[in-house]
Amino acid sequence: MSEMDERLVRGDQTAFYSLMRKRCINHKDYSDVTFLIGPHRQLVYGHRCLLAARSEVFRSMFSQQPINASVSRDSPYALPDVRPEVFLTALDYIYTNCCTLTCDLAPDVMSLAIEYALDGLKRLCVRFLLDSLCTETACDVLQASVAHAQPEMLQKALEFSAQNASDVVKTNRFQELSAEALGALLRGDNLELDELDVLNAVRRWSRSNAIVANRPPREIAAPVIPLVRLPLLSPDELKKVEEENKKDGIVPMEQLAATWKCHALKENAPYNYSTCLRSGTKSRESHQHLPAAKK
Fold it and tell me: Which domains are seen in the chain, by residue range?
């Protein structure tokens, strides 16, 4: 038969998927490698040939251990920081090229996919997260984009979060954002949020994380508070901010002083990042003197 006569024919993929899940994934029969997953060391069975064929990371791991079923089973690989459901989802993809994702699972599965060089699974997670993008998931998508350096995913997460900022900042997930992820959001001019609301959101975020980290709120807020555009507030609002700031010192005195200087200079104030109006900035009489507002 010549090469011209060859063609790929496909069998019943649904039947294949069902059989692989039923008889191979995490099945003791014929397995030659075991894993202890999560803090409770859940035992999971695998097959070296399939894992190595799908992931160069697994191939490298197994090359350091003799190919002997009894030795492999007696010397399991411990992965205490991986949730069992995340690892089993990755196995599902490795064995069948399919998997079932949820909004809770997808960010962690994506992280595992990147760690084990499963590019196809990573793409599935990115697609799933973007298709599931909503107010409740926006911060998870934003955090995953920043943590794993996914620029296209990050851009879409930032656009959605900026347009829906008033709802996004009220979610519990917002409080769990890293300083880097929150900073990426606060840098945008298209943020549909007034600056007083931006400051209050940063206050809530820093106080929440200060409890978790057992650190002063001002230390938690330090990386992101310079991104709050205080000159967009009116002088009366700024006075109230100063009074509130006596409680936790979240806003550095230098930043407050620079803001007052900007108001004092009025038309002569220099053009800079902090004087740029955002999409959600409410109009104030003091804005007529801002150099960014006059452009």
Answer: 12-101 (3.30.710.10)
Answer whether 177's CB lies under 8 Å from 205's CB.
yes
At 80, which amino acid appears?
A: P
- Sheet holding 77-79: strands in order across? 42-46, 33-37, 77-79
User: Residue 140, class by beta-carbon neighbours within 10 Å (0-12 exposed, 13-18 middle, 19+ buried)?
Assistant: buried
Tell me the per-residue pLDDT of 202-223, one tens digit each, with 9 for 90 and over. 999 999 999 999 999 999 999 9
**Residues 76, 44: Cα–Cα separation, whole Å:** 9
Split at pLDDT 50, 70, 90, the class of 294 is very low
Region label for 129, one of left (φ > 0), alpha (ψ between -120 and 50) or beta (otherwise): alpha
Q: Report residue 248 CA to chain centroid gap.
A: 28
Per the DSSP assignment, residues forming a β-bridge with 78 are 36
**Model confidence, pTM:** 0.86
Q: Could you give the CA distance from residue 83 to residue 153 in angstroms, rounded to a whole number?
A: 24
Instruction: Say what angle helices 179-186 and 195-213 make with each other, to 10 degrees.
Output: 180
Strands 42-46 and 77-79: unpaired
Residue 116: both structure tokens together: 């084990």
Give the DSSP per-residue string, 196-243: HHHHHHHHHHHHHHHHHHTS-HHHHHTTTGGGS-GGGS-HHHHHHHHH
